[in-house]
Structure formats: structure tokens, C-alpha cells
DNA sequence: CTGGTGTCATACGCGGACCGTATGACGTGT
DNA sequence: ACACGTCATACGGTCCGCGTATGACACCAG
């Protein structure tokens, strides 16, 4: 009979848990190892260690890849929650230790330099960090305290957040340089009515529908395109001439693929660039950054004067 | 300007978090190290590593001991939650992997052998574990899935639990062998009206009040006694003649201090030995154990026939 | 049946991290 | 001023986990 007196000291390595979530996502040790910047044997051992710590086999290895076992299905959501909670605990603790610190997030193609510089000038003692975020990570990054303010584009769920529109941004068509529409002054939806537009798996369905303009204003569904994993894959696909996409007005300095170009898209609602912070956040630096952003980040991409709708 | 692309891989070692909670509890590196079965320098380094991972100073070391810093106050409750969640995730995953396994918890002085043996006989393929629990840990151990059933004594909060009374148990007075009341057939509350009764810090206030019989039936508060950390300390205190206590009918085979003895206490409500499981738990083995416990564990300490109030 | 391909597991040498012992620095109370 | 108790640092030894190379095994095609 096994009897133990002390609550077994928690022996669960969160780094291994993180490895597990990545393997569960890829269902493949080799590719997961690549994503984790390690090697397949090392990852294999890490999963083995994790399984030993948990005391249950989490993955069913087959010769054609890897699947979650029944226990793995139980563990995965809890593992993800543990990782989120751990990250939030660290972020909030750090924030409590350094009230004179703020992290500003932004997404590709948006420039927060002016507002950040203004904040640094007015608060020379403050630590101001900036952080590039994934397209669909703004809300999570705020709520998990990885950042304290975000400049990004709608749409995303805004509850528990305070969101202020900074300016409109026209949507543009992204095509290869040698596409039939490349070089045009502008295009309309009619010009691309039959062009397939890819789905991005990593993005929210809301976000996919918004940027694919699905459904179209006339109510028809957007032409289905292939499913790609990440935005980079989408750009590769476009460069290969297999699809086009609609996006914000990126240029080659802010992450646009070298062999792609953009054409203004007329006749559709522009996207909106917003400043978002946590709804209840009354922090000194957050408030100050709001002020500077609302003042300096309006109309960045427009020739005309700033306007706040 | 610091910009990072990837969500910083969670680098938080839960073993270090565990160390932190223990140091926070003891406010003393040396004693915390002892509790963790390690040495003070090692613990000092572990806390340093944790502070480096979190990115904030968690403890204010002084020459008179150690206190929580402001950041530490923020981190501590989250740390404890992380550890609980991690333990629960592991327990539930293990349970999912081995549906033919059950862990039965019990507290000192209670014997579950009969029911456990019956369960093993009827389910020879099942893994049946037993686990000695702290007095005030029954509810937590159940809800965190460290155990699936518990035999222990009231009182404790019973919501989200299914609790069945197995039998009554007289409360007894615990005194040194050479105490004036030792050897008496029985005593009443009047005999000990002025005897100081210690508080146990590790126990719930509810539990302290119950076993100290505070307030007494006549409405008067129980005489205050010293504050001790753990039950073992209380027994040492009684052995030293500095206090007496009221407890369940332990004997020397089930954890009673060698130089102590017990005297039946008349005229007070007996305590109740109960079987507790999670309210929603419909597990095959749990149900089976309930049956055997209700059948075999009633009246264990009474000469008379079993009875289920 | 047999060779090829792709999967995950294992063998092995090495570097780095962590531990325990011994000792130091430092504020505190007598 | 001295002794005491607390936490920090120095140092050598050990073990753990990584990366490279290789193996075992299932599947597929011919």
C-alpha cells in the first residue's frame, strides 16, 4: 500500500509543457522541434520527461506522425491555461515592481515611434518598451499584461478594452509585381470578383472574413482560396501567382514581400487603426501614452490633416 | 528600443515558485530550506533565479529575516494558484489515463483498511492507493483531484462535495500521563473550564473553534492558549504540561504522542466521521468504495452495532 | 518481397547548471 | 565593542540535458 505524508512537491516543468503544446499543435516532432529552435531528439526526450512527470502517456507516436492520446486531450487545455496564467503572473508582478514602466504593442506596418518618443521625452525616468505583436494577438497581449497599450487595426473583440480610433486606412490589393492588375491606379471589387483569396489558419475567423471581404457587398461569398498557416505563407502564395489578398497599406519597408506590390482598393470601407488599452487601466504612463497617441498618431498615412472620427 | 517578435517562451520554473511560497510562509531562508529538505545557500540561489525569471525582486532580505516585497505580495497568490492548478492538471490527466485507479485519503487515527480491502477484492484489476492527509486538507485534496474519496472528521466546508456520516466518535481530552485528570474514567467541560487550549495556526479557524469548543455551551469563550504551528507542536506543548487539548480518540498506535494519554469527555457533542467524495463524481470505483465504506466503516470505534445516523 | 522514405527512439561525448560545504559581509542587540 | 544571527558568495564535484550520429520500425511502390 502506497501512503505518502507530504503533498508531493509539484514537479512539473513548464518549459516541457510548452513543448507539449507545440507538438500537439504540429502533430509532428520534427517540425515542432524546428518551431522551438531545438532538435528532434531533444524534443523527443523532453516529451518523455513530461510524460514521466505527469505520469501518463500524452502522445500516441505512430510512424505517420503523432496524435494526442486520451490523456493528452485532457491535459492540453489545462496546459495552455497554465502557460497563460504563468505568463500573466510574471507580467503583473513585473509591472508591480516597476510602476515606471510601460510596454507598447503594435502590429506590422504601424509606426508608434512618434508617440513613444513623446512619452520618453515627457517621462525621462520611465522605461518604455515596444513590442511587435501578431495580427490576432492584440487583445490577448493586453489582457495577459504582456503589453499595456496597443496600436493595431480593427476588427477584434473590444469588450474589457478601451478602444479609440486613431485614423482610417484604405485597404489595398496585394499582388505579384507581374500581375495583370499591378501598376493600376486603383482597382475595385469587380476587378477581383473571381480571384481566390486565401484563408489564414492562425487568424480568427472574424479577421479572415474581414480581410477577405466575405461576404462581398452584393451578398455573394468571396471566392475560396487555399488554406495557409501563417501570413508569411500567404505572401509566398501570392508571389507564386496562386492567389491575391487584401490587406492594409504595407510597403517594402514594413514587411511587404519583395516581389509583391499593392494597388489601392476603391469602393470598400477603409480599415481603422485604433489605440487599445485595458478598460480599467488608470496607470499614469498609459494615460500619458493615450494622450500622445491620440495627438500624434492620427492621419499618419493620409496627406490631409488629422481627423478623429 | 527593445522589440521582440515571439511571445517569450514561458520561462518559469514551478519548483522555484514552490520554494518561494515556502520562504514567503516562513519568512526565513534557513527554516524554509529545512522544510524543503535542502540547504540555505541553495535556497538562496533558487530564489535569486526565480527573481531573475520573473524580472522583479520578490523578497526583501533583512538581517532579521525576510519579508515579501510589494511585487512579492502580487506574485504570492498567483504562485499558489499556479501550483494548485498544475497539481490538478496532473492529477486529472493521470486519472484520465488510468480510469481503473482510485486514491483514498484519510486522516490520522482513522482506518480505512477494511473498505480498501473489500474494494481490492471486488476489483482485482483496479489500482487502489491510499494517502494520509493533513487535518484540514480533505476538501482541497478532493477538489484538486489529489484523492477521489476521503474518510475524515467534520467539520469542514461541504459544498461541491458529497458527504455521508459514517459514525459518531466521542471527543476526548488529551493530557500528559502525569496530569491531574489522567486516569479518570471521564471528565466534563467543568473539569477543564480554566485549562488553556492552544490554537493551531495551520488549521482553519472553523476547525480551531470546533476542537477548542469555543464558545463553550454556556456561551463563554474558551480559555486562550498559546499559538502553535502544527499539531505536532501542540502535542509537544501538552507533553510539557503547558496546555491540554480536545481531540478525537487517538491511541498510541495511530499517532498519539508517547507521553500523552486521553480521557473520555462527557457532555459534549461527539464528532462525526464522514466519507466525502466530489459532488459530481460518478466514477465506478468511487461508487464502489462508497458502498463498501458505508457498509464496513460504520461503528468502528463503538462496541455496539453499526448505526448510520 | 525488397528497397526507399519518413517517422520517432537510442547511443554517446560534452558543456553547463546546480548542489553542498565552507566562509564572508553586514546589520543588530547587549 | 563584541557576539550573534541572517543572507550572500566561493569553489569543487556531480549529474543532467543537449546536439550529432545512428538505429528501429512502419508504410509504400515497384
UniProtKB/TrEMBL annotation, chains A, B:
InterPro entries: LysR_HTH_N (IPR000847), LysR_subst-bd (IPR005119), WH-like_DNA-bd_sf (IPR036388), WH_DNA-bd_sf (IPR036390). The keyword Transit peptide does not apply. Pfam families: HTH_1, LysR_substrate. Keywords: DNA-binding, Transcription, Transcription regulation. One of its GO terms (cellular component) is protein-DNA complex. Residues 12-69 form the HTH lysR-type domain. One of its GO terms (molecular function) is DNA binding. Belongs to the LysR transcriptional regulatory family. This is Transcriptional regulator, LysR family protein.
